[in-house]
């Protein structure tokens, strides 16, 4: 790995990188930054949590003159939370250089954004719908944009943002640098690349598996009706620092977060039907640790970087392998380890195998945690908390009563009772969740691989600079499995993403966006 000083960056950009605590560049940064600095178009693929944001952010910031007063860089993200997060990271990277960057996303009062735009930001980070809204109001002009980044490019395409992106990019001068980034690059990304990029360089640092290497992956076979008890046992047994639990639908997320709260966990839910205020609050609470379980739809699957997330649990399996890769990638980031669990109902086993096949990753089967394991887990946490207190806190004011109690009672009994008290009995509330239909792995067509060899290598096809691994026939097939849901009771499969467009026949996030069928 290189040090950042070797890229020949401006001193103020280097200073910001140092301030962020980055000592060496990650592999994707290593390969992308020099290419991006030349101004060439770029397609960058690297595992989740490996620093793609800085890989495009650093060169983008480096090339903008501080005296610039026009919007010269545009970064698009599929969700609002991601726009906010990327804007924060860009903000940190421009701290010393003093550029102005601004997130533009739906759900936030437009007047406030218009006022912020008057401060002449050079860098806009936005979701497509709200960007178009500003373009139509003429509060954003793209005539001077010289750099465009599509973060989570494949997701933007899958969400049906192609039309929006086409409209937006038609307003950006041709002589621009365009970069696409994602951990997954399904073959259909070519469509996007052909249309919007000029002789792009492909940078891929996906080794054998597309899933991030430090994530321990396991699944538990469980019936739909057992899922909630399995979840509480798992949470007790594992005692995550922070956990994200993915549910299939908005209803599921609502029911699940409420159920967890009733059982005494500090949990809250995130999905596209909440107001942006509510969404911001939930994210803030999760980031500052005032809740330790975030229950979410796929709206939280892409890009979110919250330090301390030790566990991801797929309460419901995701519909497609990409989603699996991104969901579990919310843990095991920036060199840290993480654990991903998936609940699989008996009828979904085939679908799990499909995910394994496409991700080229074996997911090991583990038994349902027993009640004893759950209790043991909770007691372990209590003991750890006690030890921490003994070692680090002032407890003098409790000592008198401790001495008094010890004179009267046996020390082991006394401590055991204290542990029981702190551990707390699980609130035995009866929980009934509305069942979801299983995800069906439909028969796959033999091979629908596109002929774009540059992207071959399966749905996660690497550009193959350093990619590799076996290329099974079915690996090339994204088209044959069920992606538009099985019409389950209550909404079916719900691609919960942000489609913020206004006045274009779209509800503000209410719509149950269904993934277009690839056929
Ligand atoms: N060179 C570096 N050294 C140390 N930490 C880094 C470095 N580059 C990035 N990071 C940190 O790693 C974390 C993950 O980075 P980032 O969110 O950019 O990953 P990503 O590749 O975009 O992941 P995803 O595919 O999930 O979007 C962030 O917290 C970021 O600050
Ligand atoms: Mg990212």
Automatic annotation (TrEMBL):
- UniProt GO molecular function: helicase activity
Q: Does the record's keyword annotation contain Hydrolase? A: yes
User: What SMART domains would the database entry show?
Assistant: DEXDc, HELICc
Say which domain of life the source belongs to.
Bacteria
Segments carrying the region annotation (Disordered) are 437-519
Which UniProt keywords are listed?
Answer: ATP-binding, Helicase, Hydrolase, Nucleotide-binding
Biased composition regions of type Basic and acidic residues, renumbered to the chain: 494-519
Q: Where is the DEAD-box RNA helicase Q domain?
A: 2-30
Gene3D superfamilies xref list: P-loop containing nucleotide triphosphate hydrolases (3.40.50.300)
Q: Which residues form the Helicase ATP-binding domain?
A: 33-203
Q: What InterPro entries has UniProt attached to this entry?
A: DEAD/DEAH_box_helicase_dom, DEAD/DEAH_RhlB, DEAD_box_RNA_helicases, Helicase_ATP-bd, Helicase_C-like, P-loop_NTPase, RNA-helicase_DEAD-box_CS, RNA_helicase_DEAD_Q_motif
Q: The motif Q motif: which residues?
A: 2-30
Helicase C-terminal domain residues are 214-376
In the record, the note on similarity to other proteins reads:
Belongs to the DEAD box helicase family.
- Name of the featured protein: DEAD/DEAH box helicase
């Amino acid at each position: 790995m290189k040090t950042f000083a070797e890229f020949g960056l401006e001193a103020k950009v280097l200073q910001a990188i140092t301030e962020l605590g980055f000592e060496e560049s990650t592999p994707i940064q290593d390969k992308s930054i020099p290419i991006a600095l030349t101004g060439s178009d770029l397609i960058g693929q690297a595992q989740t949590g490996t620093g793609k944001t800085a890989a495009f952010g650093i060169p983008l910031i480096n090339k903008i003159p501080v005296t610039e007063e026009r919007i010269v860089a545009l970064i698009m993200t599929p969700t609002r939370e991601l726009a906010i997060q990327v804007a924060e990271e860009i903000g940190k990277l421009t701290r010393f250089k003093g550029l102005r960057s601004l997130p533009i996303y739906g759900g936030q009062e437009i007047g406030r954004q218009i006022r912020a735009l008057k401060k002449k930001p050079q860098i806009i980070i936005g979701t497509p719908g709200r960007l178009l809204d500003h373009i139509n109001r003429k509060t954003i002009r793209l005539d001077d944009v010289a750099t465009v980044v599509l973060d989570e490019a494949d997701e933007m395409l899958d969400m049906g943002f192609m039309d929006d992106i086409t409209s937006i990019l038609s307003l950006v001068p041709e002589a621009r640098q365009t970069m696409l980034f994602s951990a997954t690059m399904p073959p259909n990304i070519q469509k996007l690349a052909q249309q919007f990029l000029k002789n792009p360089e492909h940078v891929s640092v996906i080794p054998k598996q597309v899933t991030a290497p430090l994530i321990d992956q396991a699944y538990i076979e469980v019936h739909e009706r057992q899922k909630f008890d399995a979840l509480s046992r798992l949470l007790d047994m594992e005692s995550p620092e922070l956990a994200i639990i993915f549910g299939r639908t908005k209803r599921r997320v609502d029911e699940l977060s409420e159920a967890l709260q009733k059982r005494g966990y500090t949990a809250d839910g995130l999905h596209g039907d909440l107001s942006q205020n509510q969404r911001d609050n939930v994210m803030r609470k999760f980031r500052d640790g005032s809740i330790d379980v975030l229950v979410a739809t796929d709206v939280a699957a892409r890009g979110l970087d919250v330090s301390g997330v030790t566990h991801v649990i797929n309460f419901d399996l995701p519909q497609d392998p990409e989603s699996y890769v991104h969901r579990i990638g919310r843990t095991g980031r920036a060199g840290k380890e993480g654990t991903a669990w998936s609940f699989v109902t008996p009828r979904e086993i085939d679908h799990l195998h499909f995910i394994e096949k496409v991700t080229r990753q074996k997911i090991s089967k583990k038994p349902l945690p027993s009640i004893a394991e759950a209790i043991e887990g909770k007691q372990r946490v209590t003991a750890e908390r006690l030890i921490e207190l003994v070692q680090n806190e002032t407890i003098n004011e409790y000592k008198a009563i401790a001495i008094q109690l010890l004179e009267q009672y046996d020390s082991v009994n006394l401590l055991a009772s204290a542990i029981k008290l702190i551990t707390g009995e699980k609130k035995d509330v009866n929980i009934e969740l509305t069942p979801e239909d299983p995800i069906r792995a439909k028969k796959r067509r033999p091979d629908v691989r596109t002929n774009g060899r540059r992207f071959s290598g399966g749905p996660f096809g690497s550009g193959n600079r350093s990619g590799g691994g076996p290329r099974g026939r079915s690996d090339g097939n994204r088209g044959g499995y069920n992606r538009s849901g099985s019409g389950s009771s209550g909404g079916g499969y719900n691609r919960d993403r942000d489609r913020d467009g206004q006045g274009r026949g779209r509800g503000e996030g209410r719509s149950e966006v269904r993934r277009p069928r690839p056929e």
